[in-house]
Amino acid sequence: MIQTIIGKKLEQSQKFLENGKRVPVTHISVANNVVTQLKTTEKEGYSAVQLGFGTKKKPTKAVFGHAKKAGLEKAPVILKEVRITDEADLPQAGEFVAVASVLKPGDIVDVTGTSKGKGFAGVVKRHNFRGGPKTHGQSDRHRAPGSIGQTTTPGRVYKGKRMAGRMGSDTVTVANLTVVAVDEAAQTVLVAGLVPGAKKSILYITKTGEEKKFVELLEEKIKREAAEAETAKIEAENAAKEAEKQSEEIVSEPAVEEVKEELKAEAPASEKLESVDTDQVKTEEEAVKVRAQESVTEEKK
């Protein structure tokens, strides 16, 4: 079973839970996740599924040939290999992965993405240094890093020393986020909390567990109750129609038999069927049913 799916960050907003709590949510589009390759234990030595996401404008011949082998007309822009433990019920190469088959409301996920780039940043911004003193003649020490080591011993700067440098554009994973809604029609996922990256950046969503005390969104609850009420209404109408049909059959069968006996005993059928509307009833059997219905109506009156 696939536990990971590729998505694209759309926007951040807020929603209300059923208990009235307001939570920040991130909208993630997971449409067009396609299987580009299956790797099996017999051939590759391990089990995995290679997923493709997006559309590459100018793919190389190698990438296009790889996509064509899977039966795709266009090459995906992202390829991600996902390990699997159970090879049963796996999609074939060229098939799209539905979000409902991977995620559902209440799932706990880890979201991995590339954080926003900040450029070359100093130690105050990059490492939250406090900075130097602002008085006693310290006119240029406000955001300086300060001492970076000792003297002749050891005579060098230790590796990993926190200094100024490029900040951001790192692979960041935010763990233990909760899926609060899944839209199968729009192929989107709503995750409670904020995820790394800018808008339209690529995200990898991995399911790690399920929330035991999950509280659904208020609007999702309203939609679910409305759908359940509509389903119950349709079922009630169908049951009423079925009961009415059965009652008509039970009432009409004895009456039809009685009318048949009367017609056989009294006179030929042609004389007794004069009162029946010949435009609506064309056969003797239908005429008998009409007479039976009339007799039942008169008895009720």
What does this entry look like structurally?
- With 301 residues, the chain is an alpha+beta fold.
- It folds into 2 domains: 4-115 and 169-212, Beta Barrel (Elongation Factor Tu (Ef-tu), domain 3), CATH 2.40.30.10; 223-300, no CATH class.
- Helix content is 28%, strand content 27%.
- It is built from 5 helices and 11 strands; from the N terminus they run ββββαβββαββββααα.
- The protein has helices at 61-69, 123-127, 218-266, 269-272, 284-300; strands at residues 4-16, 22-29, 34-39, 48-53, 78-83, 107-114, 119-121, 165-167, 171-183, 188-192, 202-210.
- The strands form 3 sheets. Strands 1-2-10-9-6-11 form a 6-stranded antiparallel β-barrel.
- The longest helix is centred in the last third of the chain and has 49 residues, at 218-266.
- The two termini are 66 Å apart.
- Residues 269-281 have low confidence and may be disordered.
Q: Strands across the major sheet, in which order?
A: 1-2-10-9-6-11
What fraction strand?
25-35%
Largest sheet: 6 strands, antiparallel, barrel
Q: In CATH terms, what is the fold-level topology of the largest domain? A: Elongation Factor Tu (Ef-tu), domain 3
- Count of runs of 4 or more consecutive helical residues: 5
Task: Give the overall silhouette.
Answer: elongated
SSE string, helices as H and strands as E: EEEEHEEEHEEEEHHH
CATH class of the largest domain: Mainly Beta
Distance between the termini: 66 Å
Summing up helix and strand content along with how strands pair, one would put the structural category as: alpha+beta
Find the CATH superfamily of the largest domain.
Translation factors
Please name the CATH architecture of the largest domain.
Beta Barrel
- How many individual β-strands? 11
**Could you list the spans in which at least 5 consecutive residues all have pLDDT below 50?**
269-281
> Can you tell me the number of structural domains?
2
Helix content: 25-40%
Question: What is the mean pLDDT?
Answer: 87
